Amino acid sequence: MPATRVRVLLCDDHELVRRGLRSLLETDLTVEVIGEASSADEAVTTSAETAPDVVVMDVRMPGRSGVEACRDIRAHREQTRVLILTSFADDEALFSAIMAGASGYVLKQIQGNDLLDAIHRVANGESLLDPSVTGQVLARIRGDVLGASGDGGVEQLTPQERRIVGLVAEGMTNRQIGEQVHLAEKTVKNYVSNILMKLDLSRRAEVAAFMARRKHGGDAQTWS
Question: At what angle do helices 174-181 and 185-199 cross, to 10 degrees?
Fold first, then answer.
């Protein structure tokens, strides 16, 4: 058994879903389920008490939403990553979750091994967006970025930075972006840091939401 395992908190209002997830995750010796929550408020409280590495969170629950819980969990402990696991392919929920600090958004139709992989990737600091939810929207965002000359700070980006920010919005890692644009991973990291600074963002997970809001007329200067 590995010395360090990914500590996971499960949050879903359906007991059978939580049982199924626990059974799946407990087949992987690199994952430890440290608790369960049936509501957003319980998720926030339990997360504060147990400090999990990853919270697997449903979006729609009685009372407050999983997005609100995500925001509170991240505000209390930024090291805790939140992976949204939902039945709803809802673009608005996706971007709200990203703005709340979620590191990933996947649908419940995901295969078991893919979910385990997603948990590990999120725990390692990657951003993960389900392509069946984001493909068309992010393609439009990327197209908008590539031809951008408009507002919201994007005009400060160089052509190369505009290309990279589009790839970040698609959820690509620095390594994947480097392979796409033929740059070293460290160089891409520097580009991303400069982009976040120019756009007044603090995390790469906010980029997709930033570009979507900009596309629909939002004011980027009010987001942080």
Answer: 110
